[in-house]
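ok so for the tutorial part 2 we go from a plain amino acid sequence to predicted structure tokens. step 1 is just haveing the sequence, like this:
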Amino acid sequence: MRDALVGAAFHLFLERGYEQTTVDDIVTLAGVGRRSFFRYFPSKEDVVFPDHEQCLADMTEFLAASGDDDDPVGRACDAARLVMRMYAENPAFSVQRYRLTREVPGLRTYELSVVWRYERTLADYLRARFADRRDGSLRANVAAAAVVAAHNHALRSWLRCGGEGDALGRVDAALEFVRETWSPGGDGNGADSGETEDVVVVIAKRKTPMWRVVREVESRFGDD
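step 2 — the prediction. this is what the tokens look like for a chain of 224 residues:
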């Protein structure tokens, strides 16, 4: 019945337009009563995003099952991949929804609230994992926003192409950029520079002129 309601709704949205379609229109076409509609969907907006509640629950469960040895940012990236897989399971429906949300401002606002819930879920997980860091809350919020932004960049690029091509490959590339930037696999603080810096300790008498200290350092380490 749930799938029948979604199918009827989108048939009418494409035929008449979203604003011109009522809940009564949807249940009539689906052959069910209004009570059945509201058993599955709190509002007409919710029928446009029928899979996000379950996906959010799956993401929350996935993050809760992470181990202490898991890279937190890597785990957050893997959680975001669950969302992309949801879209990729039904490309035609995903593209239809994308085009509909571009046309209806109210749906765009609703979609942004859904995205915010994903980001909040990721941020809550990362804050718990970064609790021992002085910058833990800031790092968690920024990293979560980066994961969502990278995911959405790949998702929208795929949707604009009509849902053709490798959706998961697109999001993998985008999320790998985030992981390399924020995971401790780099330098533990941000992007991996690929280099290590030498630290030189110089011992000199207090009255030694600075030019002599510099010359001594240069003579010993200038050729390295």
